[in-house]
């Protein structure tokens, strides 16, 4: 019997992934960039047992049995197994896979990114595979490929039809910009109304603005973002982050029928942050929103205390639907293996 | 002494005007199309007294004295006076102008369009001017030029720098599509947070999606909309109307800082209408939102009763902040003169 447990971090994009050019292989229509958060507050954890005594492969997510015939799960397993030494004695044994997120699942908090990164990493460990497994994680959930690395990560869209060049690379390690912090503001921890998968599919089919964004705006913005990160230029980084979040949600609204992820509380947070920055006379905080109403704020360590106080003042914790902060976390460690037997 | 009273209708755009290429002349970056509503429920009313006894020109809006040195007011007055017979004895007399809207002002319900159309029309009457005064109304408030005509109206953006070809033309009279109805759902009748003027200025300066929309999307969409109106093709008309409303709000979100006009109630209305159309198996209702959270629904007379019942069921009147319906109105009469002495 083999047992592996792994944990994997969440990543929060600052240049957004929205739209696939290949639904099965999960190949995107533009590059994206994210920071990987520390494992301290939010992570996915996966344990895998591989044993000759198991009569079938089973997969639990947060205590609920999942179908193992899903395309995404099967694709990850198949691609991992392609890399396994065919003489490995336990290759034919069944698996018992148990995954958990310590934060709300499918609430637009990158749970599937952490989850699939963790699953693929744990599979790679159990089958003793080395190398860049980000393109395999990508087949589980696109943005999962970015959670394979720590620090600042770019998912290169790639050009080939087989997706072999659509993988994540590290722009800078977590040590590069040690002052950077992320605050996660949980506006609503319920499962989102529009899944990212169907939302982005409809966007690709119906939004003329998305085509323009992917082809003509993101390439330049990606370059500018990489430069801003490398130079630790917070002002430029913050503006690009907010603009790209807004443009992603604009594209969702240009989708037909439209998909909405921001709500009135999200909008109030956006307005508050612009008001705060304007009053401070400099950019102190940047917001970004994924496919849900919850805000992620990027800011420097020196400003964390004041910003938390300001947000607690404007949004007393009782006005929100869940724990207010998931804690301040930093772009941080590489995918971390907790225990490996 | 000369006295004139005029009323002017509201128009609701189905292809949206957003963005000026000239701030002073109010020249737009794309064509727009609207229907002019009947005067029955919503209108602006302006009375002008012209008398040698008046010591200065004064202007009241909804009972409040307004500055008469505003550029917009002065531009309208100057352009009208250019067309006046210089021998007209009362050309030098001062004016007492009194305007009222019978619906919320500056709440994204096209109050300035009706207001300036009415002002310019009343001025034209008092000075005995004939001809297309839509380009003068445009200098008061861009979309006012469309309220000069009844039925279905196109504001041609024009190309000249002096704006002489940026004017409204009628696509079809109010009798063309007699089954068409408009429902106005007042979500919030408060003055909007972001004025249209400053919002669209910021959009032009910062939104890359707006440039693409104006140059590459609206021209084709305008053609399709005109064809749909001429053919009374409700299905195509409705889809284009909803798509263009959504794209306009997408551009607002792509603006930096973003401007928000839709709120959670607006979004709930959008979702309800897509749900309703889907359940009916055909497009029965189309929504459109201007620079505010209030919805305008375009639908055919046969469906009005059921749609009103459905909306009253989902949004009981007490859940909204104001009178629920401003009434069902039709694309209707030409600018109507009530009294002219």
Automatic annotation (TrEMBL), chains A, B:
GO biological process: isopentenyl diphosphate biosynthetic process, mevalonate pathway; sterol biosynthetic process
Keyword set, alphabetical order: ATP-binding, Lipid biosynthesis, Lipid metabolism, Lyase, Nucleotide-binding, Steroid biosynthesis, Steroid metabolism, Sterol biosynthesis, Sterol metabolism
Reactions catalysed: (R)-5-diphosphomevalonate + ATP = isopentenyl diphosphate + ADP + phosphate + CO2
Broad class of enzyme this protein falls into: lyase
InterPro entries in the record: GHMP_kinase_C_sf, Mev_decarb, Mev_diP_decarb, MVD-like_N, Mvd1_C, Ribosomal_Su5_D2-typ_SF, Ribsml_uS5_D2-typ_fold_subgr
Domain Diphosphomevalonate decarboxylase-like N-terminal: 8-168
E.C. no: 4.1.1.33
Functional description taken from the UniProt entry: Catalyzes the ATP dependent decarboxylation of (R)-5-diphosphomevalonate to form isopentenyl diphosphate (IPP). Functions in the mevalonate (MVA) pathway leading to isopentenyl diphosphate (IPP), a key precursor for the biosynthesis of isoprenoids and sterol synthesis.
Family named by the database record: Belongs to the diphosphomevalonate decarboxylase family.
Record-given protein name: Diphosphomevalonate decarboxylase
Organism encoding this protein: Henosepilachna vigintioctopunctata
